[in-house]
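I'll show one example:
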Amino acid sequence: MLGDALRYPIESDDRVATLVIGGLLLVLGVLVLPAFVVQGYLVRVLDSSARGESEAPSFTDWGGLFVDGLKLTVVGLVVGIVIAVPFVLVTALLTGGLVAVGDSGGNVAALGVVVALVYVLLSVLALVVAYFLPAMFTNFAVEGRLGAAFDLSTVTSVALTTDYLVAVLLAVVLGSVVNAVAAPFAVLLVGIPLLFYGQVVTYYLFGRAYAEGRRAAGLPGIRGGAAASSRSDRV
């Protein structure tokens, strides 16, 4: 799987153009709209890799890429809110508690311990929720429906397999390594396509994690590629 992931972005005939376009879009991401196109491309990577394809997709149907990227961003925002709300509520409650105990040293110290423990638990919860994200993203990508990202039955079945766990960990580690190598060269621009390459490799492994997890969970095989072609017309 590691070798396949590293080769995936450079197997297609238009690999140079794809990496250059992807890198340019990353640079232009500060304008927001190009960032959605990149996210849409990554949706195609998820769909392609989950179906076992060995070559990265090309930049075609830019309108579809934009819509897919917007939908993927919505999924990420919803999950981000789910993670953020407990932190906000707990922070508000604990702030009120600090005001209530006043200057009492012993009470403040005890509350400080409680605060630390609560934030540790919330951080663990955030990691657990984030662990399900690749499965949510890929289920949306292969089904072509925004609602598929929140199909908790399928997502949970996939994510609770060892195959999924191993592939996701590999994606995180490999993506971090590629980004660490590319980052120093980003200021010279030559590293920008490499950063995009790292994103594609990471999302390829996310797609493979979903496919392997789906197989291990005994779920039906992924349907034909029609979902990918009609995704932008569906909610």
About this structure: Residues 226-230 have pLDDT under 50 and may be disordered. The chain has one domain: 2-233.
